[in-house]
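Handout, section B. The chain below has 348 residues.
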Amino acid sequence: MKKLWTILLAAALGLGAFAACGFETDTNDDLVWTRSSALCNECLERAPEPDSLAITIPENDKSYSYAKALGDLAEYYDFTVDISRGLNNWILGMLSTLDEILSYPPTDHDADTCIWGPFIPNGLSPVEVRFSMTKISDTEFEYVWDQRLKNTDNAFQAVWGGMIQPSTDTARRGIGNLFIDWTTAHDLDPTWDVTGRMDVEYDTYTDGRQIDIVFTDFQNERDLFPTNATYHYHNRLDNSGEFLFEYAADAYWDFLGGTPGQTELETITQKTLWHGDGEGVSVFSMRDGDVTGRNLYGDFTMDEIEGYECWNDVFERTYFRASVISTDGEKLTLDEEGVETDCGGFAL
């Protein structure tokens, strides 16, 4: 019998979260594949293509050190690229697993749903898994990967999945959503060190690609606090774009009089804009926690720390400014390099 292996979501998530699973002839000799139906072929044609949900930031292959002066690789740009790659690991890994599953005939199907599995786990995995894709209507498909404790009749619980309303013009494009529920997976398999949830909404055929991502109470066993974060990405047809993210984190402001590991969390926001040739700007902000309300001197009470950085079409810093803003709106510039007119027409 043909062996079916799904891609390790551990690699996809970078978290060691999922174990590989598949069909093994020595434990599933009584399992008989059904022939793929027209419905299941349609599922493959409608499933979101992994690359369509990639968060792509303009890049080149030059080697730089972090920006210390004008002409070095822009530091905020580099941070933006790192964030995009981390998000891609989660989303593209899940959709690559979806592609891998759909490349094999289903275990079973009816008029509306194709089912793969349940897969009998191997080794030390405490769960068995199942994947299904359902045609809700001619304009909507749903898919779900669910799990339950092995050797039980317990109900399956959804761990990841999504919905797509496919484009009628472009294959495997559309409007939809997807999710990963790490908490449910952790409850079924306590060896997971991750809890929380990721929800994604996307539109991959209207004005380029738009993707919105929300992390809720995301935490691994090494984190002191759960993370709540939002990300908005828009890559337009002319290759210009924007990427905005906001999250809460303990920035360890001990150099401002705080204590490392304290429970005060700062709100960190970064908005990056770029032209089609890669020239761009990032605006960074940190507020709340141990920043807002801290007195620097005299009557100057801090409200926010902000930074601006601009780069050219080969991602070299052309302008940088770091400032603190008081609760009265007074701005104190701490560092500045270059001139604002070298910011590619972006308004600061």
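Note. The CA atoms of residues 34 and 340 lie 65 Å apart. Compare this with the example in section A.
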